[in-house]
Structure formats: structure tokens, C-alpha cells
Amino acid sequence: MRLLLLLTLVCASSHAFEWQQDKNKQGIEVYQQALGNGLLKLKAITVTEGCLASFESLLFDTQNANKWLSNVEKVTVLKSPSPNEHIVYTQFNAPWPIKNRDMVTYSRIYRTSKSQTQIGIQAAPNVYPKQSNYIRIEHVEASWVINQLSQNKISIEYQAIADPAGKIPLWLGNSVAKSNVFNTFKKMRARLKLYTCN
């Protein structure tokens, strides 16, 4: 009886946190996973032209980050403890009526093989002083996995969960997050063509 109850609870929990497809268009798939606190964990997947080197060049071109990261005003690398570790400060232009946000993150990028790059991102809110007119996002976790499928084709998978902080209704925060992920991937696919493969 206890085993049956345990299996029932596990199955119910597993079902509650399954990925649900939110969007599939323009070569971009967006999935959502409802968490117990009301926030959504998001996943986006695409296959597009490019290579590991071009994606990394896009990522490190922080001066032009606002041209593909949705609602991002500015990205600044504060310091790099090592060639593959970076402390990054990001400012967001949030859509009305949401106040502008900012965040500080620690990221680590590494090649797991000749055909794969992985990036892990986590919040580091206390590394940089809080700025006036911005609400600090203090809880964020994200990851990128980029696979080289052929000479000039890559698959890109992104997962993220973030608490936007402040007084935002959950439905509005989740809606903006899903829109941002899709628009980021759409602009990313177009912008990748500007970076060459070595």
C-alpha cells in the first residue's frame, strides 16, 4: 500500500512538472514547465545555420547584445576570473507597466567536446552594487547547450528560470518571459549569420 501511494505521488509530481509546448513556429520551439511557486521554467530549441565558434562570438560581442537579447538595454562584463568564467551585469528595458530590471550573473562556458559547447549561468547579485531606478533580479539559473550537427548547422537549447522580483503578477511575469525567449531566439537566428565560422 505504501509503495502504491509512493508511486502515485511520484507520478503526480512528474506529471505536474512535465514540459508543455507553448510555441512552435519559425523554426523555434518553446516549452514551459510549471513550478510549485507559480513561476515557469522555460526551454527553447532551434536548429539553425552557424557553428560553435560563431555562437561564441555572438555571445562575447556584448556591445551588440541588445540587438538580439529581447528587452536588454546593456550588457557589461565586469570581470573574467578565467578565460571561460565571466561576471556579467545586464540591464533590462522592461515593457510598461513593469519597472526596469537588472541582474548580475556568473557564467561558465566550456567545450565538452569538439562538437558541443555548454554554458551555465547563475545569479551573483551581491558582486555589483544595486543601481537606482532598477530592481535587482536575485534568483536566476540558466543553461545553453549548443551542438554542431554538420559543417554549418547547429542545434541550440536554452533553459532558464528567473524570479523577476518586485510586485509583478505571476501571469504577467510569465507572459513576458515567454515572449522574451521566443523573440531572443528569432533575432539570434538572424544575427548568427553575421559571425563567421573559423
UniProtKB/TrEMBL annotation:
What keyword terms does UniProt attach to this protein?
A: Signal
Q: Where is the START domain?
A: 19-197
* Pfam families in UniProt: START
Q: Which cellular component appears as one GO term in the record?
A: cytoplasm
At the top level, the lineage of the source is Bacteria
Q: Which InterPro entries match?
A: START-like_dom_sf, START_dom_prot, START_lipid-bd_dom, START_lipid_transfer
- Tell me the leader sequence span: 1-16
GO molecular function ontology, one term from the record: lipid binding
Name of protein: START domain-containing protein
Which organism does this sequence originate in?
A: Pseudoalteromonas piratica
